[in-house]
């Protein structure tokens, strides 16, 4: 297969990706792992095959491809077909877009961790931050707290609301591990790893028992926002984990269960292909294939078990049920600016970032004797919707300074979303969010929607933008940027989306009286799950 592809692309019509042989590199390090080696062979072949798409980027299909339309727009409806088959111009908004259900399946499908990097926030001491759809505590990893003389003795309050039982349960346990200042490695393992050490299991058990001492939240109404309470569904899951501690699954079973959640064609292997050092390619491939973080090569097998939180859930809950990787949520701008490829491996650089960031949060929660705590964290199972008027009023009474919304804007029609945010806003509330799916509402956000004669030029232009940004976004040297190895659509869409971003911005803010603080793309990073991420920040307060 690989030889066949090489023959097809051997001419000079397109530039060869020069995909590194990470399959062979992995085989040298782990020669007995035949299934992993075969998996990487398929992944490498898939990447090489993509060069053919780049070669024919200027060609249009004879007939509309339903699979392509579904991938592009996330629906295949009569309304969409009518939109696409009537005369269109670049920047037209698909106002008939069918929104995915915000809470659809969240009781069972669950994210093990966030899937995108977050903004670096600065909190004024004593203020309230409401985090809706928080998933985990990644917002605090880069956060800073500045002293406010009006609230010098008051801690910040970080109050999270989630529609996922799993996220609330797991994050409450991790927070308790932080409060107790258990070894940082154990916190990292519970948060990110498919495999734990026996030491981590011990600290996890203590934290679970402590969380189970929380009070009971109401089953049919808003919780007390600043009280440690557990909804009955959350308590049920944590109690199940408490029982599962006695009989954890093996680390070998963890590996098998982990690899069922993604395929060799997954975009995550582009990360491996773009790393410069063979050392980093092997280690990142190992992490992708096993879910281990940190890698457990230095641990005796008898000291390893499967993650309780990933692989021991009740009531049909399926954490890590789709292709999610912790690399996708890492703030690459911070990590790459503080490390050098020749001095430390890529995974170790990530580990050091997490270690330092978690130590900071631990100290905020449990300061040294004689010092005041800087933050209090309260996490609740409670969906935030327009139908939940009692909760919206409860949030408004807290007069939040910042409200973070993850990518929840993608699940609401624009009018309904603004209505909900206005209902829970305080006097000076700043709303921050990231839209992942905005491009699914704009014609012209995809390279194939442009005239075939300009597409190759769009690809070249996008690649130049990435190459020019290398010295700014990555002085570390971990990745190559000269000829990015990715799906040609991923590269070309960078040019396409820049042309229509303003159209969607005008649509999102139409007829809204507010102040816009930020509306910008997140800088390119090889680790992002998608390169469509838009940071949005605004307030309904019009005062200067």
Percent helix range: 40-55%
Oligomeric state of this protein: single chain
Given as residue ranges, the uncertain stretches (5+ residues, pLDDT < 50) are 8-14
**Overall outline:** globular
Largest sheet: 7 strands, mixed
Number of strands: 15
Structural class by sheet pairing and helices: alpha/beta
Mean pLDDT: 92
Please report the distance between the alpha carbons of the first and last residues: 63 Å
C-alpha-based Rg, rounded: 24 Å
Spatial arrangement of strands, main beta sheet: 11-5-3-12-13-15-14
Strand content: 5-15%
Summed up, the helix count is: 19
Question: How does this structure look, described?
Answer:
By secondary structure, the protein is α/β, with parallel strands linked by helices. It has a domain at 163-377. It is 41% helix and 11% strand. It contains 19 helices and 15 strands. Strands 11-5-3-12-13-15-14 form a seven-stranded mixed sheet, covered by helices on one side. α1 (2-8) packs parallel to α3, α6 packs antiparallel against α7 and α18 packs across α19 (488-508). The radius of gyration is 24 Å and the shape is globular.
